[in-house]
Every structure is written in structure tokens, then in C-alpha cells.
Amino acid sequence: MNRYILFILLITVTSVAWGQSTRVRGKITDAKTGEPLPLVNVVFKGTTVGVTSDFDGIYILETREKVTELQASFVGYESQTVKVVPGSYNALDFQLVPYTVDLEEVNVTPGENPAHRILKNVSRNKKKNNPDELSLYKCSTYTKMELDLTNINPYFKNKKLQKNFGFIFEHMDTSVITGKAFLPIMISEATADYYHRSSPGFSREIVKASRISGIEEDYSLAQFTGHLHVNVNLYDNYINIFEVKFASPLSEHGLLYYKYFLVDSMQINGRKTYKIRFHPKGTSTPVLDGEVNIDSASWALQSAHVKMLKGLNVNWIRHLVIENTNELVNDSVWFPKQDKLFADFTIVMSDSAKLVSFLGHRQIDYTHVRLNEPIPEEVLKLDNNVIISRDVLKNDEQYWDTVRPYELSVKEKQIYGMVDSVKNVPLYQNIYTVISTILGGYYDTKYVGIGPYYKLFSFNKLEGCRFQLGLRTTSDFSKKIRLFGHLAYGTKDRHFKGGGGLEYMFKDLPTSKLTLSFKHDVVQLGAGVNAFTEGNILSSILSRGNNDRLSLVNQGDISFEQEWRQGVSNTFAAQVRNIFSSRYVPFIRPDGKEMSSIQSLSFRLRTRLSKNEIIVRQTFDKFSLGSDYPIFTLDLSAGVKGIFKNDYEYYRLEGTVMWDIGFPPIGTSKFALSGGKIFGKVPYPLLKLHEGNATYFYDPYAFSCMNYYEFASDLWASLMYEHHFKGFFLGKIPLMKRLKWREVFIFKALIGTLEKKNNGSLEDTRAILLFPEGMSSVSKPYFEAGVGIENIFRILRVDAIWRLSHRHSVPGQKVQNFAVNFSINLNF
């Protein structure tokens, strides 16, 4: 599991510096005053590769061209030229000497900032210059990613670990971004063909080859080694990186965020180019700092060098740098030539921190651009935006030598061997196992996983102390079939419980999977989709004291999931269930007699629709990383009567729409709108039991102030809404700004009705079962709202939530009108 989390970090990260390029970093100051000099031109002599210093006087430069000298020049100061060591890292500071020139009187009159005039022309010509707006194109891409360790303890070599990892230190290098030594631990390469059409919208990437050094090569990871998951387009108003929406310097609203300075005009490849440096007006919203070069003839972006400003309310990233280079294609259209992105991931944000941190690099090179060529029919018919073949993993060095846009040096080739050697060290394998167990929940031997560890022990009122042992097979046992099972025992009910089953994977991309399972165990009816599962120790520790309404069930399930194409899937399922009556959840008929159990046989068809959803796929599991578009689910269920003693005929229709919408710079809204209808007469365990929360842990898809078995419906609609302001208000308060806390607003609503034949709370009820004491219809709408603070210590969220209706207790239900919930969130 941990290797997938690393890839989540890397799917938006590109490279700025590779081992054998010439890299220079330094600071420029006034030789007399020592003050930093911003906007100084620094260029590799004899080339057009250059940059201007930022407002702290810092500059960074990198090139693979053959260079020997670096020159710094600034109006009013003497130019300086220094030697550089090619193919390595150079730390070069400049102290520029001012000179005095007698000038005649100059009259300065107010007028429009010339940089603003240029940017207006850039906006007017965005449609023709933005590559996303091109009607048709095809190109080849080469993508290289690297993950490095930095801030390695200098005494590391003298410890016992030296015998395991001592061979790696000869491969250390220095980052041009941070100026600190780093050690590569993972490298990946991929080559692909990319097809694009603007109307109707179409993007498809055919990954032809991929390889990963440093971790176990995995076919499913190849989907993240291409172009589609790292499309940083400066023409967009906001640039989404790590779910942080940075205001683009070329945004239509750029003047709200930045001050612009026209610092130079120069000739690049015979074309007049304007160099514009921009600097943020404030830091209460995510902003960047850097420069853009604009072609004077077409008003297109020629290149850009930007970085994240320090002090922003962004987690885990100490440094972030984006570089973009475009070139003319067919002497008419500007098209990306190279995109780079660098990120320094760390727990402690201070540059002086000594803790080990990660450097992520990713670089994309674009070649063989073809404009206005029809997309082949066989490409249009493919069913995923990212297509990979089973032979995509290639370790043929000769192949990679032919597809790379540059030749690797001897030292770079040795780094690949070093990175692959690290994973064979026993100590590394032990560390890998510990991390994998923590993140995945199972301790994996070669063929069997033991766990999950968080269910080994728990406690509740029904079972008392619960002990559980679970096993499942690993992908080394089989990549087609996974067996699983568990055994549990409660000290209070003195009852053994358990379950088991199998999953058979016909195909993993697109998914085609059969699952069979059976369990004799306790369940919490009416729990939310994000609630702790039964037997989780956290549900016991964080209980509010009303976790006693568990039910014992015998349940058999069979399901088949078929993903027809990316974003379109169906699940066909059947379930046999026997829910037993208990002293906590009794089944009492209107005549006062108790039913021992409720039996049902149901069939279900689930349809799920999404667009451009990012999916992490493992051998048997897959996880959604979200989408910019709504995600729809529709469930159709039918209960079949006549198989068991007391089964029921009914039909259930339920739909959900989930959508995360960005509203930069004021944050992101998260909606979950659902509703449904049950046709037929059923006992209350088969009604819609609305999602309560019996713990202090926050569940976004449950009602925080609602108890289990408080409301039931056969026709209902609900809304779960959160808005994350991401520090928009608190970031403007001087003292609060340093805490980097973020505001959250919460609103949840529910309305539902019950037909008389299903309403077991009526005195003259005609329902099959009487409702548990305190349970009723929710025909009077239920509302709750709250406010929260997230990003406390960068991981903790605390919410205060008020119940706005149904505030009076009723027999059997002690109403909670106010709740404090907390949760753990790892957000950028």
C-alpha cells in the first residue's frame, strides 16, 4: 500500500534538475550595502538560458547545454561574469558594484504599466495560443520522475546502517532548488502517444513503455507515469497542484493577486521576447512568484519559471518550482516543449529543519507534434483515457536510449543500478514491511496476510471484549484469486463469530471481478458509508456510549462488478440475510409477540458514472482520488418473496450525486445529494435507517447529532454539504495567519416520510414490526449545521455542530443538540 501513497505524491510532480545538467544557485547583493538585488538578469553566456533574481536576490538556473560562464547584469551596476563547472552543481553568489552616471533631467509622467498592456494582449490571444484549445493534435511524450531523500544525517555513515547502505553515498548530488544534498531512491520513465481534441472534448494517452526503479515494478502504476496526471497549464486561471489552486500569473484576474514588472526585452531565436517578473500582493491565498517570457509577435507564452511563495497555507511542501518551455510548431502554433515541476516534501516546514524529507521531480518532454491530423479510429474506440498494455514494463536499456530526448551520462546510468540495489537490502525490506503493515492493515507473509491489526481487539455492550483474527491471501499466492476469512469471540455473549469468502479477478483494467462471501457476525444497521467498521478498536475507544444497538446476522453475498469503460460500471449482486432479534434491537409485532429473526433475499443492480476520475488500482482493490465532475450512483434493489419463512417482496430505488466544486480563492465546496424510495411493505430493518454517528469521530456522510435508530423512511432526500475556506479568513488575521488554521462550514439536511403500512411508531400501526422506542418518521425536516477548524498541527480537524430541529428528547432517545467531532486529515 505504501508504494501507492508515494505515487499519489508523484503523479503531479515533475523534475527541475537531473544529475548531469549544469546547475547554478546563488544570491545577488549590492557590494556596498549588502542588500539583496531583485530583477537582476542572470544568463549562461552564449545562450538564451537565463532568469532574473527574485525579491530576495535568489536565482536558480539549469541547462544541459554546454556552458562555461555565467553573467549577471543590472542597470546601474557593473556586469560580472564567472566560470561554472559544467555538468555539476555550482553555488555562485554575486556582489554587484554600483556605478554612477550623470544623466540629464528626466520627466516621468504617469501612464499604464507596460507589463499590463502585454498581459492584456496575452489574454486576448489565449484561445489561439492555449494548447488545450487546439482543435486536434497528437504528440509523443517522455516522462521521467524521481523521488529523493534529503537532510540525511551526516553521522549516518558511522552507524550500523552503514553496512547496509554505505554503497549509496557515492551517488549523492545537490539540489539546485534547495542547495542541499539528496539521494535518489526511486526513478521512473515512461513514453507515450497522446491524442487531444477540443470539441467534442477528447484526451487519450497510450503508454507504450514504462519502468520503475527503486520499488517493485507494478503494471497498475504505469497509469501514473504518463502525461495526463501532470498537466500544469499556465493559461488556466488557477493551477491545481496537490489539490491546491494557485492563481496563475496569466489569469484573467491576475491583477488582483500580483504586481507585474517589465524587466527586459530580448531576442530569442530571432524573435523579440518580453520578460515580465511578477510578485504577489499578499499571501492569504495560494500564489506564485517568478517570471514569464512573452513572444511579442503572437503574445504567446514562450517560457516560464515560477515558484511557490514562502508563508502560504500549504502543508507538507517546503519548496515548489514550475518550469515551462514552449516552441513554435510549423512556424504558426506555440506548443509545449518541456514541462518541469519540483517539490520538497517535508514534515517540518523550516529550511533549517534537520528531519529527513523527500524531493519529488518530474519532467515531460514533448516531441513529434502533429497538428490537425484525424485521430485513428482504433484510438477513439479504446475505453480508457490512459491505455497500457501488459508488456508495458520494459527494462531494455537500448530501448530507453532511443526514446530519451537526451543521453544519460555514465554517472546517471550508475544511479539506476544503485536505486534498484537498495530494495534488495534486508533492512530496507524490513522497513518496507513495517510501513506496509501500518498503512495497509495487514502483516503480509509471502502468501498470507494477517490482520487487520485494528480489529484484533475491541469492545461493545453486546459482545463485551471482542477478539478477532483475520487472514487473507496475498498477490504472491495468486493474482487472480484472493481468499479471506476471520474468526471472532465475545467475552460477554460468549459466542463465536466469523466469516470468509473469495474474490476472483477476471480482469483488472477495466475491472471485472466476482466476489463471494458469508458471515455470521454483528453489524450496525444504519451506519454511514464512512463509519468505522464493526470490530474496529477506534469505534470502541471513541464511542459516545450508545454503541449498543448491534445486530447479529447470517449473511451471504455474491456480486459481480463490471467496468465497461472508464467511468462507467455496473455491479450485479444478490444477498441472503437473516437478522436476529436481540434485547438491544428487538423485533416485536403489533400483537406483542417477538419474531426471532428477519429473513430476506434481494437482488441489486448498481450503476456508477464518473468523468475523468483518477483511480489507483491494486491487484484486487481500487481507490478513487476524485474527479472535477459529479459522480453519480444509482441503486435498484428487489426483494424476492417465497424462498424463506418470513421474507418480503419490495423494490428500492436510491440515487446519489457527489461533487467537489472549487471556488478559488475562497475554497472548495463538497456536495452529497441523495434520495430514494422503497415500494412495498417491509419490517423496519429493511427501511432506510438514517445514518447516525455514535462516536466522537467526524463522518462527513452521517448526521453528527443523530442517534442510530432515531429516524426511518421509505421516501427520503438528504443533503450533506461542507465548504472548506482553506484559510481565506483566518489567513488575513496577523496572529492567526501563523497557525495556518483553515475554516470549515457544515450544513446537513434530511426529510423523509413513511406510509402507514411501514410506520411502526403509530398507535394503530399496520406495520409488520413495532419501531424501537424513540424511532419515528422525519416528515418534519431534520437540520444540523456547524463550523470547524482544520489543519490544526496540519493533521487535526475539530468541528462544533448544532442540531437545529427535533431538539426535544422523546422516550427511548436522548437527543444530542450539540456535538464536538474530530478527525484526522492529511491535506496539502
From TrEMBL:
A Pfam cross-reference name: DUF5686
InterPro entries assigned to the protein according to its UniProt record, in alphabetical order: CarboxyPept-like_regulatory, DUF5686
Signal peptide (UniProt feature, chain positions): none
Highest taxon listed in the record's lineage: Bacteria
Protein name: Carboxypeptidase-like regulatory domain-containing protein
Lineage: Bacteria, Pseudomonadati, Bacteroidota, Bacteroidia, Bacteroidales
